[in-house]
From TrEMBL, chains A, B, C, D:
The keyword Transferase applies. One of its GO terms (biological process) is glycine biosynthetic process, by transamination of glyoxylate. It comes from the Bacteria. Keywords: Aminotransferase, Pyridoxal phosphate, Transferase. It comes from Ramlibacter tataouinensis. InterPro entries: Aminotrans_V_dom (IPR000192), PyrdxlP-dep_Trfase (IPR015424), PyrdxlP-dep_Trfase_major (IPR015421), PyrdxlP-dep_Trfase_small (IPR015422), SP_NH2Trfase/AEP_transaminase (IPR024169). Pfam families: Aminotran_5. Its cofactor is pyridoxal 5'-phosphate. This is Serine--glyoxylate aminotransferase. The keyword Transferase applies. GO terms for molecular function: alanine-glyoxylate transaminase activity; L-serine-pyruvate transaminase activity. The lineage of its organism: Bacteria, Pseudomonadati, Pseudomonadota, Betaproteobacteria, Burkholderiales.
């Protein structure tokens, strides 16, 4: 019998930037009995989640739901739209941009990895002007796609996607715009249609508050058009049959039924007019992020994101002083305070940790997380300028809103 | 379809002194399918919980498990051992002692309510010497029972039960000793046999971390003897048939099967050698209580319990400054920070609130609760001497222990 | 970690006449986190379940919900309305009537136990004319209450309660009418107000499809009037404080919160207009009962209830041929076919078993249960006249209705 | 709030050949909170499921667990081992073999689809001698892989995989042997190592009793060797990084954590020595299949599988008489008896339905399913030779074993 009891008592504080804590409501929905994915009940479920997720992406076009985790949806975006050897322009915002770039290379695409040099690129958002310049230089339109990450989970930077679209348009270039918003969707404002994105890739285990296991491609008409001639081999990821079957609320192969139950619940929670819908979701993430940043500033530590204009509402990267092993600090916090934080990845391994402030959180959850960090930093011998917890509390109390509303259940 | 969504996001901080937060492990155990309470599987369950709960009471004698909430177990203690008009000496430690006294009166007993005058009695523990004096004066042994509350949930005072036993013995008096440890059991050290208690009353929704709905009478051989001649009417509460049927692992009427599943899990968690068993349970409650008291002291507010020797490890009563409505403060904390605190009861209504620090908690839960209080107090205009959160964190960090241990699941 | 795995695979068929199988929907509702029973959310829940349960009892008067199992509600009915030594007329329909009678005696009431002689009384319903005669003879109105069982769980007989009311009225007698409908409510038609019942006792684990642990007293204005002068000691069971507190949606002591979640869900399911409300609930129980009786008849075995007018829609008692140990048959069915049946109780111990057909069932569940019986009977060497399964299937197929309806979830 | 209530009461009988009913134990395990997939607890879980699933495949070599449904694992098998244009010999056993063949074509492989003509090939197992002949003719070893389906879910035929291995060896041909045992694993005996399979593809929603969403590639050393030079683009499906990371109990990208909880529970259930381990699992599927076939024979209907040597223990295809629309019959059974059956696929659409008898079943579940079929067939006007239910009961009763064992929970 499986138990998870590393800690003797109390609830774990899962403050990594995803998987985010799954609300009981969603776990409960996921425990409904698995049904026949070819039966009449399923079609009702299928249509419901397809409609709900499109609202979350802010799109009127198809959203493909894969019974696979987010990395698969990266592959799907590439495999459906590109052909072997195609030239792709990718922008390096951090570790996940790097992994996507590596995947594209592995799939046989010719990738070009643009970005600011060294660690600097990992502390700022996408520089849209660099993309514009590069595309202007591509007179023959060899570049078939521009790939950027919306919310870079490894750094805590949320790039301006609308600016990237403007850059492509300004260059008069026909490249597709493909965006990873795996950790941005349903936490940071994201507008697939309005921003002119061709393929948005996302996953379940972040703002959607689900366990990992389903992922998404939101696709524009231009992307669908491109998929008709793209020659990378594709079958499992192929959009065509899925879009066709989705019309009836079904999928061509076995969908991830119980996670779809969870997705139906998640959409209900996110879109609920009672609680303010998506604008309220985005606002509370911004609020939490501001509270956590107030804490980091009070400690006198650096926020990894060096440009306040692109601070992430989803997570905050906290740089350690010279000589401090961030993973040792994380271990103290995990072992003594039952709180998980994100590790530093790639270029910043050991030099920072990441505090997730997304999904099923509230002010006290984040004060607790910040307190765990503060105690752990002190126990690890890190000198702090002041109390981050106090700063976070000051922020939250000064900006407190009346949250509780009585409903008739 | 029932939902509980007063707050739009995140997990509620249930910091009342019971019901305490029910761990997922227990909720999960409670969702096992209800079985035939006369079938062979049930006997295995029945014997298992009877054995486990006896260990929790630290007794080798029978523990009666009622399919009823704690107030019923109060009635059971009286109805099994006493006759109409019997003289009972009860001690006023607070609101729950008062309610038990009222119940005894309603059941037709002649109660005498001993205690210190006014609110003073609600800030100190049982004065064993007063009991001793009263019993010495009762030369004819008219008094049939002495009733005291171990952990007074309305005040945050944990009385010395062994001292009460010594007082009765010193007076050479044959009265039964009946103790309410509804909110003490499985949080504060409690020794039914060693302390010579005749009937201990307890309930499920406190240290046992279960929802309300089952309750207990741990009974001594003397109490069983008394029950044979006691003449208060009794049927549902009658010990005799239950003790008889329990020998086979069954109950005379339908038991509360799904809560018994929870109780089996609860005993596993509390008694687990891996996590240190009951001594570790008691130690962590003491630790949490010390952290919370550090916070109240830092705020410059009074702890309701005026005698440090009997501070409760389960809850702390926080007195408000003159003119502050404690319930208005609680409302702010509930509405803005999604945290429930205990209200002031009876004599202290509106003058204090109670912070529960029991059951399925950890350091960060309590820092969060203290933070909710601190922000709510400030928003309510209460002047605080200093930061309670800082004090709690200092206490927890200075006393941090390595909690996490890897198990093979 | 608790598991229930007596059988290696598949779902247990719990075909006892209660506890009935708890639907996943209810188990899921019961797993919501326990909340503060004094907080604002609770009042919403409290009012909701009080309103729902009154509809189920078909009453406009108060229904008391006890955090205790059904036997407690028997005691509550007596303790609230009667005084020590009061004369009570009880009618013997079977084992549970006998137990209620024994309880009344134990509580100090003077009980008179009316009924047909020997086992005959256990095969027929309440003989209202006998009650009428007895009451007419009671010229001084010494009899304070008439107690009958609506659906006798030990036999499978559902008595005509309206006839009992008419008998009391015909005798012009002021005795209160108290009815046990523990296993009748929400399965068999039951009309507290229309039938002029003063106190109806019920429980959670039968037609309400909940685990055991809450129970009910539906009370008439006359019963409430009687409770003001009744002198049996009462405190936990006392209606007065509960009725008073219920006005705000609260209880005077800790309610069984998680079972109330289940009750809210149960009322939603039973009263759902979409599925036809209570009339549809009663109709399907009648239908299941008819199918099961068709099976028993086909086997050539006797149905314990000898009067077709009072066949129970909830359970069917199956008499064994001379020399067959019914419990040995039950054991075979349990061990080999993973199906639990009710044992014979009291006067019919070992001579019959009971098939429950209530709550969360459907046609195939009952065909399966009947098949388990048929195979078990054969393996036990009982000669059967014909196939009961075939007869049940014939009945169900001939009376099949279109059940499935598509909802939008 | 999502509900699934097409039917007003009772539990749905999900008798399709997968997804199979998910046991409560697994749903409960899946509701554990999602944890950090990079943290220390996760490694314990990861190693545990990797070890367990290898035992289920009966292999000592790596098993890749994909966070994707079964169709993805088909693609993974091909993408890891083959290069564009490679010649693959596939054998047509039914609809799923056809779909796999179509996928291979779509991925740019040159497929050759061997099989018996017309519907005949869909009623028999793989003809190993045809494979041997074809391979002997392939003197240049152009054929790189032989792909067969172990348990063809569309027909109810379980082919002899050891015979295919012998055929390849007899031909002295180096082709890889790739087997789809999506619906065979953990229901039908399957021996990856002993039978010399190079890649076995499987999924979660059949014998493993999980919801859909994870899938598997069990791989031989030869398959791993082949993957090093295979040139189909691969990234998400690539074995190399997964095998490397699995050594520590981790995955290169986010795994499907909550389904892995379920998998740990599933392995515990399947491998439990207490219940007989895999041999007992296989034996009970054979037993259920025999009971269901007895029913079909009694009805006088044809079993789709025309060769008794390869009857599937997992499902049985039931051919309808000329002129009967199998899907209309299925609809009657679904709407009136709350039972889902598998539809006829591809060449046999509308001509047959499939009864799943796998996973979390027991004798009574299957009697119920057969009863639903029998009543539905009659209501649809299909003339039956005799009672299938009676035949199934005869079979089960004659072969009854004592299943129940008391455990200490």
């Amino acid at each position: 019998m499986l138990t998870l009891d590393n800690h003797p008592t109390g609830r774990h504080f899962l403050q990594i930037p995803g998987p985010s804590p799954v609300p009981d409501r969603i776990l409960r929905a996921m425990s409904l009995p698995t049904i026949d994915h070819r039966g009449p009940e399923f079609a009702v479920l299928g249509r419901r989640v397809l409609e709900g997720i499109a609202q979350v992406f802010q799109t009127r076009h198809p959203v493909i739901i894969y019974p696979a985790s987010g990395t698969g949806a990266w592959e799907a975006a590439l495999a459906n739209t590109l052909s072997p050897g195609d030239h792709v322009l990718m922008y390096e915002t951090g570790h996940f941009a790097t992994l996507w770039n590596r995947m594209a290379t592995r799939l046989g695409l010719k990738t070009e990895f643009l970005g600011l040099p060294g660690i600097e690129g990992w502390r700022r958002g996408v520089q849209a002007h660099m993309i514009e310049e590069r595309l202007r230089a591509d007179r023959e339109h060899a570049i078939k796609a521009v790939c950027v990450v919306h919310n870079e989970t490894s750094t805590g930077v949320t790039s301006d996607i609308a600016a990237v679209r403007r850059a492509i348009d300004a260059a008069g270039h026909p490249a597709l715009l493909m965006v990873d918003s795996i950790s941005g969707l349903a936490s940071a404002d994201y507008r697939h249609d309005e921003w002119g994105v061709d393929v948005t890739v996302s996953g379940s285990q972040k703002g959607l508050m689900l366990p990992p296991g389903i992922s998404f491609n939101a696709v524009s008409p231009r992307a669908i058009e491109a998929s008709k001639t793209a020659r990378l081999p594709k079958s499992f990821w192929a959009w065509d049959e899925i879009i066709e079957m989705n019309k009836g609320g079904y999928w061509p192969y076995t969908p991830n039924t119980n996670l779809l139950y969870g997705l139906a619940e998640s959409c209900d929670m996110l879109l609920s007019p009672q609680h303010g819908g998506l604008p309220a979701v985005f606002a509370r993430h911004q609020r939490w992020a501001a509270g956590v940043r107030a804490a980091v500033n009070a400690w006198g530590l650096d926020i990894q994101c060096a440009d306040p204009a692109v601070y992430s509402p989803v997570l905050t990267g906290v740089m350690m002083p010279e000589g401090v092993d961030a993973d040792a600090v994380r271990r103290v916090i995990y072992e003594r305070f039952d709180c998980s934080l994100g590790t530093g990845l790639g270029k910043v391994k050991g030099r920072m940790f990441r505090i997730g402030h997304l999904g099923d959180c509230n002010d006290l959850t984040l004060v607790a997380a910040v307190a765990g960090c503060e105690m752990g930093l002190k126990l690890s011998g890190v000198k702090l300028a002041g109390s981050g917890v106090q700063a976070a509390m000051d922020y939250f109390a000064s900006n407190a809103v009346r949250l509780a509303q009585l409903h008739s259940g």
